[in-house]
Amino acid sequence: MNDLIKKLIMLVITLLLVSAAAFITFQIIPGDPVTAALGTDYTEEAAEQMREALGLNRSLPERFFSWLWGAVRGDFGTSMQYHQPVSALIGDRLAVTLWLAVLSMLFVIVVSIPLGILAARFSGRAADRVITLLSQIAMAVPPFFLGILLTLVFGIVLSWFTPGGYVSLEQDPAGFFSYLIWPAAAVAIPKIAMTVKFLRSSVIRQMRLDYVRTARSKGNKESAVLLRHVLKNALIPVVTFLGMAAADVLAGSIIVEQVFGLPGIGRLLVVSISNRDYAVVQAIILYIAFAVVVINFLVDLLYQRLDPRVRLN
Amino acid sequence: MESDKKDSLLSVRNLSVSFPAKRGNYDPARADAVSSREEAGQDCGRKNVVNQVSFAVGPGEIVGIVGESGSGKSMTALALMGLLPEGAARGADELCFDGRDLARLSDREYRELKGSRMAMIFQEPMTSLNPVYTVGKQTEEMLRLHTDCGAQERRQRTIQAFKEAGLSDPERVMDQYPHQLSGGQRQRVMIAMAMICEPALLIADEPTTALDVTVQARILGLIKQLNRDHGTAVLFISHDLGVIRQLCSRVLVMYQGRIVEQGSIRDIFEHPREEYTRTLLDAVPGLHKRSPVSGREGERERLLLVENLSVAYEGNRRGLFGGRPRTEAVKKISFEVYRGEILGLVGESGCGKSTTAKAVAGLIGGYEGKIVTGDGQAAASLRPQMVFQDPYGSLNPSKRIGWILEESLKMRGMKRGVDRVARVKEMLREVGLDVEYASRYPRDLSGGQRQRVAIAAALIAEPKLLILDEPVSALDVTVQSQILNLLLRLRERHGLSYLFISHDINVVYQICDRVCVMYRGEIVETAQTMRLAKCPEHEYTKRLLNDVPDA
Amino acid sequence: MEKKNINHRLGQILVCAVVLFVLIGCFYTPYDPNEMNAGLVNAGPSLTHPFGTDQFGRDVLSRVMKGAGTTFFVGLCTVAIGAAAGILLGALTGYYGGLFDEILMRVNDGLASFPSILLALVIVSISGPGTYQLILALGVLFIPSFARVVRSEYILQKQMDYVKNAKLMGVSDARILFVHILPNTGTILRSALTIGFNNAVLAEAGMSYLSLGVQPPDASLGRMLSEAQSYLFSAPWSALAPGILIVLTVLGFGLLNERGE
Fold first, then answer.
1. Cα(A209)–Cα(A233) distance, rounded to whole angstroms?
2. ipTM value for the complex
3. Residue A134's domain spans which residues?
């Protein structure tokens, strides 16, 4: 328990560092945001007023903590392009992206673990070759191109779904998820391929170790050797891998939702970057960074549960 | 032999194990093993690693199999257990265990036999246990597989087995993971696991090789005791003739996949009939054959002086804010090396002998105390060079032998390539290698050859002091004695002094003039080799000498 | 064993073909890749235009040839920046260790847990979009992954006895670092380079697809996909051609790596 408290403290420190990084990054931008915002209306007075209003005349640490305090309450300031509170802009869009990421991750875990075990169990034989070849190809496809392909084949040629269609979660939950399946597949498939390859080689590596021989010498069936002895060992590195995959899936979701025209956070982010709407960019980056840090934290906990060598050190 | 077979527990006639010729390389780390296997004969595209082996084991008997690496002794054991690696094929005229023909068993019947009637323990107790489960759970698994015991009874019997295997506090050990136990404890767990179903045959594959001598002696005692108490037959595989002699009643000598000789311990050790057996026995460094080198008293010119040397290591930091724990590897030791002398530094793993060697060589800074030459100069002026234990790691794998040897000459400012090449050739000849080895890579050489190159690389720097850190521990006995003889010859010719580090007191006897015994970072005794052998003074030295299995 | 070799062979063939395609594109394309033709908008594949034309009537084959060149250029520059700085940093931190190493590795671990495309988005949001901005952003982002690989290899190698032998011979640190140890990291470095190149190609495609990388009218594979997407219904070929080329490139280099395992 003591250990958990230590980890929680580390988590808070990491979150603080990450927010500081997110804040400072956008302070070193060349050019004055006020000058840019005022454009042709620029006068000394107007600029001074605007600085006052935005709190830009205060010191850096002061500004950081007031920004952070705002962020904690969900107040990220006002978007310069939409003239709306940033939190209102992000609100629903964040949920869409998160649902997409969660669904994709679910696909990855549910599909890749059995396939990886299967490939390792029959390594060198037909089943393994087919799985390995397919995953080799799938790994090479960028998620957004896969999204385009899926739209082309299942949306346009087969008409299984309406490209660009969308209903919100409140309106029609079933419809919402049925639209989410395709982009989720586009995000998940390359990751599934990578995870299968990783798990396969992890299992094969474990199968060469001495304890496997011991397990066989006890009179275990081959399937018991694999599932009872090898699997837990082989999954330890895979957990770390899946943690990194989860972060990638989140990033992939942001790109892929452009392909399917989903009203997620990605479109907002890209538009805001193009228009230099830093308040919005900063807020989105902070959300994503927090998500990544929390994922890492959870992976760390899970890792400890699996590996006694780490747990008891 | 005939009568032997009728009431024997295990009888094997013409057992062969073969690999497809292309990938006979099941253990690529051992070039020696591979090359000797290549000569082992072929039939139809397959290479035999075990060739027409016949023997029998009676109930309650302890039979040893002895041989060097690659002789096929482990493969023989794995073949009996049905644990051969993928690609290996087994063939035999007869393979009879406990009245059943192993060759005819179905997979299921064989599985039921494994663990319950025949069990096996392995060389590396760390890697042979599953790291993510408690040792209690792993031992219980035997009962779950082979008996109908309930959970309560399984736990009781496991604790009982742990107790019998000499584990103190078995209830606590039940819930521990392998990495929390010491090497000796792990091997005891392995033995408890193997014995829990009271098998008729225990196959032990080098079970004490990875352990320190004092632990080794206790494990051997345990195996002997279990054999007495339960009447379990033991097939004991080892490269160590001393161990075999201590434990077994009969022994098979294997060489290149064949049994070259078998008989009672007494016959083999006292009247070996075969040439190879004799070579093997001669090669074993030991007290009874060679009297320890008598120390040279003549010249007492001090070459190296070590005074109050202490070395401490800083461990890994505990967390971000925690301090670093300090462990003292070497505590205030003092010794000296005389010109032309071979000083032995002997002790178990972790006693600080390698740390001492590195400090003397100048590889670790941050020590306390004095390391100087006899006339008070820095030890670096002796240009000390080292020869390490593992001949696979001490030569840069991406460079040719010639390059490796030349590097030292370049560093000493020998500008002309022609001169360097000439010197390299000279050096190679001196260590007994052909000059054409200069253009080969380390991976093309056997362990013994690599060790010769390592010695050449050290000598070409013209050191006054050579530090040898377990230089023969990784080699087979016959190669071992060749390297030791080479070292003695080189000392004579160049008037070198050696600091010779070893855990193997038999080797130390064979080569050293004086010996320092190290224990837990301290030197507990220093004496002439002869005197140490005859009347050890310190308690630990006595223990060390007693536990050494003498061939 | 045999299968690995087939994969490796296939990788070699693919890589050779793609590289040849790109090299030809540097010197010769059937049409000017930016020349518009109002009379031939979104025309399907034909003998004169094997991959068809896009929404402005530009020849897709010529654009793919030119665009792949841009993508490769970005990939190579990125890997060059990342590898050069990463090897130097990784070698020094791995060999010497110490406080500098510890700080750098913490930062490294932190950066590594974020997807590189996100960090690239952050950098580009500051520097503004463009080919060179993208190269710089990706190059800097690739330093940690190279440094990490090289560092862990140096940590392994520096404990080997041959390094101790070299020290005893009096070999200088710089020579130990780059003459004695570096060749032994070859296998791992080679696979890090191909993986890095693949990631760079994918990142370029992703960033340009989001219109934050290569800017119009220049072609790059990602840029073309982005433009072609709106015409997916009427001219799927202008999306398929660049997409498939990306897949073949990444697949080729991926297979090339197979032998190392």
1. 11
2. 0.86
3. 89-312
